[in-house]
Amino acid sequence: MTNDRFQRDRLVAEAVAVAGSDDFGADTWQEGLDVLLDGFATEARLHELGVEIAAGGVVEYLANRAGITAWRKDHPAVAEGTIDHPIFIVGQPRTGTTILYDLLALDPELRAPLTWEIDKPLPPPETATRDTDPRIDEVDAVLSMADSLIPGFTAFHPMGARLAQECVRITGGDFRSMIFPCQYRVRTYDRWLLHDADLAPAYRWHRQYLQHLQSADPAPQWLLKSPAHLWDLDALAAEYPDAVIVQTHRDPLKVITSVSALAAHLRRMASDDVDLHEISADYAEDIFLGLDRGIDARQRGVIPAERIVDVHFGDFVADPIATVRGIYAALGRELDDLTEKKMRTFLAEHPGDGGGGGTRYRFADTGLEEGPLRERAEAYEAFSGVAREPVA
User: Fold this and answer.
1) Among 93, 126, 372, 376, which is most buried by a count of CB atoms within 10 Å?
2) How confident is the model at residue 181, as a pLDDT?
3) What is the β-pairing status of strands 244-249 and 308-312?
C-alpha cells in the first residue's frame, strides 16, 4: 500500500484534479520530490494515518504550485512585481527567530507572509479583505487539530492562521526544503538537500510565490524568516542581492537539544517509531554544518557586513523590546509608539518560557556527549561571541 501511495504519477494526478491545471512551471520540483517519495516509502516508518498525511501534504504543495503557475500565466503583470531589500531573519532553530518574526511582523511597514496565505494562496490575498478573508477561519480550523494529533506541540511552536509563516513552507513547493526532514524520518533526502541539491531553483520559486502574494496586496517591504537560509546564504544572496539579514545566535548545544525535541514531537504525528537519540545525532551534524557554512559565507562577504544585524538569544529573552529597538536602529528605522505597544501586547499574550526548558526537553535525553560538542562549537562561539548555557 505504501509504495503505491507514493507513486509520483498518482500524486501528480491528484494535484491536477485539485488545481485544475497540469502545468507546474519549471520541472525543478521533480528531483527533490522523487528523493522525498522514496524516503516516505522506505525510511519514514509511517503508520497508516501518516502515509495519508505525507501523501496529502505532497498533493497540497503540488496543487498550490500548479495554481500559482496558472494564475501567473493568466496575469502576466504578476511577474513584473519587484521585491526590494527584503529582510530575512536567519539563525539556527530555537534561537528566538519565531517570536522575533512575530514581533517585527506587527510593523505595518513590513509584510510577512501569513500562514493562511501560504496554505491557501489562490486567489492571491487582497488588501481590503486580508484580515477578513474566509480562508483565515478555514486554516485556523485545521490548525486547531494540531494538539489532538501531536499533544503539546503548540507549546513548542505557536500556530495560527494570522501568524507569520516560514520560508520552508514556500520552498517546499519546489521540494527543496528542510520542512520535510523535520516532519519525517527521511534521512537520505536530508543528506541530498544539504550536500547535493542546488538551492537556486527553490529561491526562484520563493520569489515567484512572493510576487503572487503581493500582486493584489502590495508589500512595502518583505519580512521573511527561516533558519534554513543559514545553510545556503549564497543561493539567497544570488536571488536577493539586496537582502538584509538579521541573524540570531544561541549556544548550539541548546539548539540541538530543543530542535531535536521539536522534530520528535512533529514526527509522532505520522509515525509510532520515533527515535530521539537518532534525531539528536542527525541534528548535531546538521546544526554544525549550518553554523560552519554561515561563518564561511559571512567571512567571504556573501552578504555585506553593513546589511547584517546580529541578535543574541540571551539579550532578546532578557529585554525583547530593547533588542527590537537595536535592530531598528541598525536598519535605520524607528520603532513608533503604536507598533511598540502592539509588540508589548503580543509579548504579554505569548509569554513563552524563555526559549524552552523546564521539563519540555533536556540535553540528557538526547544521548549525546557534551564534551565533543563543546569542542565542535568553539569556532562558532569565537565568531559570534555567543554565551554558553548550562545543559542538563
Assistant:
1) 93
2) 98
3) parallel
The distance in angstroms from the start CA to the end CA of the chain is: 43
Q: Cell numbers at residue 345, please?
A: 501586547
For 80-134, write each residue's pLDDT tens digit: 999 999 999 999 988 999 999 999 999 999 999 999 999 999 999 999 999 999 9
**HEC states along the chain?**
CHHHHCCHHHHHHHHHHHHCCCCCCCCCHHHHHHHHHHHHHHCCCCCHHHHHHHHHHHHHHHHHHHHHHHHHHHCHHHHHCCCCCCEEEEECCCCCHHHHHHHHCCCCCCECCEHHHHHCCCCCCCHHHCCCCHHHHHHHHHHCCHHHHCCCHHHHCCCCCCCECCCHHHHHHHCCCCHHHHHCCCHHHHHHHHHHCCCHHHHHHHHHHHHHHHCCCCCCCEEEECHHHHHHHHHHHHHCCCCEEEEEECCHHHHHHHHHHHHHHHHCCCCCCCCHHHHHHHHHHHHHHHHHHHHHHHHCCCCCHHHEEEEEHHHHHHCHHHHHHHHHHHCCCCCCHHHHHHHHHHHHHCCCCCCCCCCCCCHHHHCCCHHHHHHHHHHHHHHHCCCCCCCC
Q: Say how far apart CA 368 and CA 184 lie, in whole Å.
A: 21
Summarised one tens digit per residue, pLDDT across range 68-78 is 999 999 999 99
Per-residue confidence (pLDDT) for residue 308, from 0 to 100: 97
> How far is 338 from 41, CA to CA, in rounded Å?
51
| CA–CA gap between residue 290 and residue 236 (Å, rounded) | 14
Name the amino acid, one letter, at 216. Answer: A
107-110 contacts: CB < 8 A, separation 24 or more?
107/223, 107/339, 108/220, 108/339, 109/220, 109/221, 109/333, 110/220, 110/221, 110/222, 110/223
